[in-house]
Design goal:
The chain is of the alpha+beta class. The chain has one domain (2-133): Histidine kinase-like ATPase, C-terminal domain (Heat Shock Protein 90). It has 4 helices and 5 strands; from the N terminus they run βααββααββ. It has helices spanning 14-30, 35-54, 88-91, 105-112, and strands at 2-11, 59-68, 71-80, 115-121, 125-133. A 5-stranded antiparallel beta sheet has the order 1-2-3-5-4, covered by helices on one side. A hairpin with a 2-residue loop joins strand 2 (59-68) and strand 3. Helix 1 runs antiparallel to helix 2 (35-54) and helix 2 runs antiparallel to helix 4 (105-112). The longest helix has 20 residues, at 35-54. The structure holds adenosine-5'-triphosphate and magnesium ion. Adenosine-5'-triphosphate (ATP) is lined by residues 47, 51-52, 55-56, 80, 82-85, 91, 96-99, 101-107, 126. Adenosine-5'-triphosphate binds next to helix 2 and helix 4.
């Protein structure tokens, strides 16, 4: 797998989430994703960015255009050094929340993505990698 292009955005304020949405939309358009696929990616990215901000205490998004054989995709890595997630399987269940949300962000992001990988260590932080291929 080759990385053709990459960029990093910090996620520290609500405005950063707006920027994440815009940037992911821009890159998805450039890659030629359908409107439906653009929206899936933007929605997933928005949920993950919000979790990074709210639960992770802020973090970063690494955006990468990746090429695998003839396929080109957009890979998004959300990373924070927050408290981490004690029980990842539980956190991925529809309706599980430790906050005031609906508990649908993580599970929704997983459904909307073709690749989904959640790694978290208590006290170390959380990393979520998603990708969508063209
Ligand atoms: N980056 C993170 N760091 C620490 N905990 C997290 C992180 N992301 C998610 N969690 C934990 O996983 C739970 C489920 O996340 P999810 O996004 O599904 O729901 P929510 O954010 O609580 O509500 P919603 O996204 O529907 O508004 C959160 O309530 C939180 O406890
Ligand atoms: Mg959420």
């Amino acid at each position: 797998m080759n990385v053709e292009k990459h960029d990093s955005l910090s996620i520290v304020t609500d405005d950063d989430i707006v920027r994440v949405r815009q940037r992911v939309r821009d890159w998805a358009v450039t890659l030629g994703f359908s409107l439906v696929d653009q929206t899936k990616l933007v929605t997933a990215a928005s949920e993950l960015a919000r979790n990074t901000l709210v639960y992770g205490g802020g973090g970063t998004l690494l955006m990468e255009v990746v090429v695998n054989n003839r396929k080109r995709g957009l890979r998004l890595t959300f990373e924070d050094k927050g408290p981490g997630i004690a029980d990842v399987d539980l956190a991925l269940k529809d309706g599980f929340t430790t906050g005031k949300g609906l508990g649908l962000g993580l599970s929704g992001a997983r459904r909307l993505s073709q690749d989904f990988e959640l790694t978290s260590c208590p006290d170390e932080g959380t990393r979520v990698v998603i990708a969508r291929w063209n």
